[in-house]
Structures are given as C-alpha cells and as structure tokens.
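Hello forum,

I keep getting stuck at the same step: I have a sequence, I want structure tokens, and every attempt I make locally crashes halfway through. Rather than fight my setup again tonight, could one of you with a working pipeline run this one for me? It's a single chain of 182 residues.
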Amino acid sequence: MNTSNVKFESEDETNVDQNPLIFAAAAGGISTDSVTYPAKMEEVFPIFSTDGQLRISEYNPLPIPGQMNFAILGEHVTVDSSQNPISGTSVSTSIATGVAARLLDFARQPDSRTIIDEESFKKMRTKKGMTAIFKLMSYRSDNGYNCLAPWELLPPDHATQDRRSTRKEICQSILSALQDDN
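Reply #2:
Ran it on my machine without issues. Output:
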C-alpha cells in the first residue's frame, strides 16, 4: 500500500475535531526492527512496550530517531483473571490511549477548567500538546525510549492528600508543560 499521500490532519491544525489524537502499536503485531505503518506516520503516536518495572520489552522495534518514543506497560497484562496475560505493543497502545483519555477527562472537569483555559484544553487535544504532557511523566531510557510513568503526574499517594490541592497541582503541572512547549 502506498502511504505517501495519506494525511490525517486537516489544513487547519487548530481544529482539533478534525485532528484527533491517533495512537498506533509500534510493532503492529509483527517482529521487526523498524516501526510499522501507521505508527511511523508523523501525526501518529507510535507506542512501544515496557514491563511493570519500566524496562523496555524485547519485541519493540528500534525507536524512531529524533522523535519521542513513548513506551508504557505492555507485558504480561491481565485483563480478565480467567484468561492468560497478554503482551505486545498493541496492549501498550490501549493503555497509553486510556491515559490520554483520562487526562483529557480530568482537564474538562469544572474545577480543572478554572485553571486549564479553553486554549490550553484544545492544545492538550493535539499531538504536540499531549506529547508535552507525556514528556512530563516519562523517563528517558538509555536506548532512546521515553517510558511513561503516569504516577509522576498522578501521584499514588493522592488519597492521603487534600483532593482539591492535589487536583490544582496536577492542573498547574499540565498547564506548565503546555506553556513550556511553545
């Protein structure tokens, strides 16, 4: 398939309804050294896999030079206790997509909107904006991957803290990441 003419974005990049966030498994279900289509497209988040300790999975393709190569849990994930664990970049892609959706849902809540204005919320819905937020909660590995650690933005001890101040800190971190990326 000739993919050279495929373009997901409209000419008006500010119209986020026509420019959705697009995530794709970096390996595409096959063993390869290079990222597969459509993950290798510029408009797409190629998602790589880690284990539960943020160690890069052996079946990942090589990272894309000069790009953020986000990786998240994708090894031995149990979805249903009656089934065997599943692994792969497709599993990681589902989890990364869920993290992005949760961040967008968090940002659209009334208390968050008092800090995250409409322009910033729209930026969150772009690849550039979500990349800035993912960078905020990732570790750069020695081999070129950016391992996503959502707990860096959403601390696990939030239940013991004041909910309102925790949410405010998260909003301010998101806003700061979006502004730093300008």
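The chain has one domain: 16-180. If your local run keeps crashing, start a new thread with the error log.
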